[in-house]
Design a protein that fits this description.
By secondary structure, this protein is mainly alpha-helical. The protein is 68% helix and 3% strand. The chain has one domain.
């Protein structure tokens, strides 16, 4: 991580820092904006975004390959598989984990946290600004690659329908909301444990991978459950087959629409959105408070 380290050091130590307290106090918007721009430049200069761009470009590539191999499969089948299964269940939480886990941890490992703490920025504001930059970067990637995946699925395919742009916009918004919640959650986890990648992967496998796919109340504590309900209530996933109409989403997401066609046993659209938004705010607030109270220790070079 020499790139972000050098960037942080040069940007923050180019001028003599004023002697300010590292605890909360008054501050102006100028250092906050400078920190936001600096964090965005770190994301743009590092290798992280290239790795994640390659991973999130994968659904579009696979969609093109599957389309060429199975041209008779309806586009909505490809859409459900690549947009609402591969991207939603695998790539989004992984991207959030990789980005959010390094917001503070990378600064500690690169020993650049000191350059941030001597700025006239309260610690809680420091964390929230870095979180805002992380949300900007991840949501931007989410929108771009959701759109690319839809383009790979439907451009040149017959019977796409006129509602595809609207479905694409809805999917991008749902993914962005889930991405924001994941980033706030993993940002909080990153302040509670040094082994955030291990803990985060375990969380994704056990909670978002296993519990979310069980038809029990335990899935109510997962992010993906609420994003799935939002998607199901926002757009249809019915595909005509030789054996009659089939609801891909209801089958894959364990939704008993046969006995509960209106999903009365599940949260409403507004409730799902409110749960994700409020959860994000709670996670971000807790993390900002922890950051304001925590003492950060960095290694100092040993004297020869």
């Amino acid at each position: 991580m020499n790139g972000p380290t050098a960037l942080t050091t040069s940007a923050l130590s180019s001028s003599e820092p004023p002697p300010v307290s590292t605890h909360s106090g008054g501050f102006s918007l100028t250092p906050l904006w400078a920190l936001y721009i600096l964090t965005m430049r770190q994301y743009g200069h590092g290798k992280r975004w290239m790795v994640m761009a390659a991973l999130m470009f994968l659904p579009a590539v696979l969609a093109l390959l599957v389309r060429s191999a199975s041209p008779d499969v309806p586009g909505i089948g490809h859409e459900f598989l690549f947009v609402f299964m591969l991207i939603s269940q695998a790539l989004l939480p992984l991207a959030a984990l990789i980005y959010a886990s390094g917001m503070i941890q990378d600064e500690l490992e690169d020993q650049t946290i000191t350059y941030l703490l001597i700025r006239p920025i309260p610690r809680w504001a420091l964390y929230l600004v870095k979180l805002l930059a992380t949300l900007t970067a991840t949501i931007f990637l989410t929108f771009i690659f959701t759109i690319l995946t839809y383009a790979a699925i439907y451009i040149g395919a017959g019977g796409g329908g006129q509602d595809i742009p609207l479905r694409c916009l809805k999917a991008a918004c749902i993914h962005s909301l889930a991405m924001a919640t994941y980033c706030c959650l993993f940002g909080l986890m990153g302040l509670l444990t040094k082994r955030i990648l291990i803990v985060g992967i375990l969380y994704l496998v056990v909670f978002e991978g296993l519990f979310a796919n069980l038809a029990f109340s335990i899935r109510l504590i997962t992010v993906i459950y609420y994003s799935r309900i939002i998607a199901y209530r926002s757009m249809p996933f019915i595909v005509s087959t030789p054996f009659g109409p089939r609801d891909f989403a209801a089958d894959a997401w364990q939704l008993d629409v046969a006995n509960d066609p209106t999903l009365s046993q599940h949260p409403s659209l507004f409730t799902c959105i409110a749960v994700l938004v409020l959860s994000s705010l709670v996670f971000a607030s807790l993390a900002a408070f922890i950051c304001s109270q925590r003492e950060f220790h960095v290694k100092t070079p040993e004297k020869g």
